[in-house]
Amino acid sequence: MKLFGLSVVTLLATIGSVVADKQLENRQLFRTVDLSKSYVREFIAVNVYNDGTSDETDYIVSIPPGFVDDLAKLDIKESSHEAPLKVIRLARDEHGEHWSAILPEPIKPGSQVQLQLFLSYVNQLQPVPQTIKQSEQQHLVYDGLKTFYSLYPTKSQTNRVKIMAQNMQEINMDENSTPSTEAEGGAQYGPFGPMGSFEVEPLVLRYDYPLPIPRVDSLKRDIWISHVSNSIAIEESYNLTNAGAKLDGSFSRTDFFAHHGKPSSASASIIELPFTLPLGAHDVYYTDLVGNVSTSHFRGGKEVSLLELRPRYPVFGGWNYNFTIGWEMPLTSVSRTTGADEYVVGLPLLNGPVDAQYRQIESNYILPEGAENVQVVTSEPALSKEESVTFSYLDKKGRPTIQVRHVNFVDQHRGGIVFLKYTLPGSAATIKPIFIATVIGSIFLAIFSLSQLDFTISQRPKKTTKE
């Protein structure tokens, strides 16, 4: 099996050689685990020192074995560069999954560089208890790590946990656990060190979380690109679930209004979904399984458009809500010409509600009929890409369609982008308008021709008999 031109055996050997040589060392590391959203975010600032005798061109990040399938986002930056570093997935072994960040400049022996790591995980938070009454408060449990999981030895590290509320309890403490110190909006652990490769300390926290946990189990996006009407029509169908604590008993509207605004199951229900739509969005609509929903508000601004939705009912923990939104936008606002009959269209990778996580996303990019040499580039690695043909009104050959699938997305991916590059000959762009004009002209000609014919049935004159 080959990955990026190297065999898995070679990659694992490379990882093993780094551990054996121990050229790189995490000299000083600060880690923050942010539990203030519906998913887990980690921020790590680390000074990486080269304690060896040769240059190091990359830094390897290891994801713990129990966290690999829940990884949603990984960005790495070097302090002197604004753009994220190129990250390549290497391989998976008994130590987890390993990623290589290509450094802009090699780390020379005896020198160091400061890196910033941004990680996001889904499915890491569980409600405990799993069912609560409508008047009770929701609690979540984070089952993670108290220290940073690294392939390299760490000389010193300090870890901080950030939460929304003040009530937090560590439920796995024993006599060997490192105690925490109070910090604003959470707790602080450490400093730890020195620690060896893959040496960690577990952490299980129980804390109050008075907000819902929006989880999109499946999202289907259809993006229609039309050069004839100079527009892009986008439709998104959501299968939404509140992954918080399930409601124990039946819903009481009286109790809902009585406890609304207070930490309870009511405050942890989904009552509103704000969407940020692209600039120039218009003809916005919002429907669900019942039909059109009028409880929505759309505001189009100079820089951004905001769509605020209100479901027909408060979505409590364990409840589902399926709905569809759609809008149109000018094609010229997101496209440009790069050559003769060659176009590039840039679109947002995700247009979803704030503070949400996604299990599966299917995006269908439907290009104009006659488009050729189609290329799709996404800012985030895709699980799969498939080509097909979609037929619409008055199509002869069909429209080229690219289906792109992603998994484990969070609302942070809304800053991502997808580029569509294709060639559309001038004849292909004008054939449909000419065909439509020909059909309409033929209809009018047929009507005019029929109007010139005389279909009157005249009555024969009666014969007169001579006497």
From TrEMBL:
InterPro entries given in the database record: Ribophorin_I
Major localisation: endoplasmic reticulum
Signal sequence range: 1-20
TM segment ranges: 434-453
Keyword Transmembrane helix: yes
GO-annotated biological processes: protein N-linked glycosylation via asparagine
Known partners and oligomeric status: Component of the oligosaccharyltransferase (OST) complex.
Biological role stated in the UniProt entry: Subunit of the oligosaccharyl transferase (OST) complex that catalyzes the initial transfer of a defined glycan (Glc(3)Man(9)GlcNAc(2) in eukaryotes) from the lipid carrier dolichol-pyrophosphate to an asparagine residue within an Asn-X-Ser/Thr consensus motif in nascent polypeptide chains, the first step in protein N-glycosylation. N-glycosylation occurs cotranslationally and the complex associates with the Sec61 complex at the channel-forming translocon complex that mediates protein translocation across the endoplasmic reticulum (ER). All subunits are required for a maximal enzyme activity.
Name of the protein in its database record: Dolichyl-diphosphooligosaccharide--protein glycosyltransferase subunit 1
Species name: Yarrowia lipolytica (strain CLIB 122 / E 150) (Yeast)
